[in-house]
Structure prediction request, 741 residues.
Amino acid sequence: MTNTATPNSSTEITVNGTRLSVSANHSLIQALWKTGHPNFKSASCLEGVCGSCRIMVKYDNQSAVNMALACQSKVEPGMQVIFPQYLEKESTALLNHRYRLQLSSESSEQLKTIFPEAADCRHCHGCTVACPKGIDVEQGITLANEGKLAAAGDLFINCVMCDLCTTSCPENIAPNYVALFARRTTAVNQPTPTNLARRLQALQRGELKIKY
Amino acid sequence: MNNGTPLEQARQAYRINLNRPLRPSAIDNQKLLQYFHPDYADNSRVALKVGVNRHDPCHPQLAALLQSDSPTIEAMLATATQIETEVLVIGSGGAGCSAALVAGENGANVLIATKLRVGDSNTVMAEGGIQASIEANDTPQAHFDETLKAGHYCSDKRLVEQMVLDGPEVIQWLIQQGMQFDRDEQGNLCTRRAGGTSANRVLYCRDYTGLEMMRVLRESVRQHHRITTCDYTPAVELLSNKEGHCSGALLYSIETQRYTAVKAKSVILASGGLGRMHLNGFPTSNHVGATGDGLVLAYRLGAQLQALDSFQYHPTGLAWPQTLAGTLITEGIRSTGAQLVNNSGERFIDELAPRDVVCAAIMRECEEGRGIRLESGRQGVWLDIPTLEKQQPGILAQQFPKFMALCNKADINPYQSPLLICPTLHYQNGGVVINQACETTIPGLYCAGEVSGGIHGKNRIMGNALLEIISFGRRAGAAAVARHSPDKSQLLLNHLQAFRREIKNSHGVSGIQGPLLFPHYASFSRKGA
Prediction:
């Protein structure tokens, strides 16, 4: 038995504009596989942490379009699904923000240099609406602009780097990359943990040899 | 034989119970493994017929793949675009990225070729944490001893020694890359205990350790000026020079369906494991690309492999609902006190025994009629989460956000309802033979991470996989750059022709083609194959 066993009753859905008859009681990815629609480019971890299977989805009885992850979404009759394009590697949102992590008390100044667009946030909520993980992305940008980098980073603990917030931002802010910088610079600038520091010193002194 | 209790009936019979005694076992752990662990079943191994490991035991499904023919023909190489790099890294999980970063730091130009996108790997899903002996009441010696013991003393001691001594420095390096770990009020790193160990040695970032690690390493790689990455470009064959040394690889673009031949001074194989082969029909916790490609490629080139009949079935894969079957529930939740319970509310195993023993104990409950049965006939046991939350109010929300998200998707209320779990194929214990510098038996070919073998013996403990990938990944990167390769060598497929002849002569043709690249249900096919 594999993860995709047991066929069930079928139901009609629309994926990227094409009507498909798929079996119910499956995740969207499982259902597409079972119907023989290779979708390998948009599936990897199947646990909702890699961000590769992000979708725009509209359910039959709703007018709103939501962002979600296909591996975590159950097939529902009449659902309409689009797998949006990924950001191009050459997109400015990805290319413009080059930096080296450094030990510095000036992290929030560094952030302004690396991500100057962050200050232009017009609080349109687009990024927050776009997040399939329910992160308050806009609040993260607000905190980062206020210099509260650790708090900004904390909001993004479950960010899967799907880039949907970056895609949706009209000011070309790359919120998930701002948050990742905030998290990384916070980590680097915390004092070395005492238990780790002690053990590293003991190892350096050669006190901890292994006996077979 | 009793078939266990139907799910709905068992659910209604379930009660929170703060005082469950552990049922004494009539058989010892060794017998438990022999009778009930999938690795020990009669049909779990055959002898390989061809290659360096001829006559060695190997799982039948893996044997068929290792002895498969290749769809690669000379014309694909002849018409391929040729490019050159100093170090080629195949795979982009934690091992591949750390190898590339260190190779880049050491001055080499690096190309990462990866089947999906950079970071799409098992690393990103790792929840439990990473082992490093840093607590005052713990020693690297204890880490060493317990890794060996859990692996049934089948590990290469030199590799384990090097890895446990690397541990603290690996953590420091990860922090320097920008990785956060959970800390207590004094700023110490928090630690918890892994099954089969005596001390708190697992460091973590909530239950998102792998996600946090991969986010940080992926960004480091992306920011590095010496590293180029190719997404959706799996290696489909290694390439060799006249001496049979590794000289590069043949890559295939899933997007353009074209081939590229990469010439490299050193090739680092960091392509991960094989859970998506669904050995013995098990569900898996692995990502879609875990199809054993690296083993196939290395074996054809003549690299020696080891322990090909040893796999880890993680005790707690979700068994219900069907849409999420196989999804992992972190061992971290057992290490904070969650218990395993059978159909009559009885504890039957020390939840922090080594993973293979816990797995066998669960299989036993199911086989002997004390499991909980699904309509499909598949059985599982309860992971008693409501009792854990009752004992330690708030622990779920505080420490296990990924788990809570899973419950939400599964429509399970973990405060009231236990989770039905059964073992899920999780990890390949063996793999390509390496030494302390990650060199394989083929000059020019290095391995790091799950594709390599020798570290975990016949059973791995929680947190040693994340340690291994960074410890050996960094060493592979450094060794690959330091290698002296005098010849500007050729890119040939001679080794493949020789391997094909051997398959033919031994009548060992398995009728399938490898590497698989994707599981069969993804309906993928390679052009020209």
Q: What stands out?
A: Residues 157-177 of chain B form the longest helix (21 residues). Residues 5-36+315-425 of chain B form a domain with the Flavocytochrome C3; Chain A, domain 1 fold (CATH 3.90.700.10).
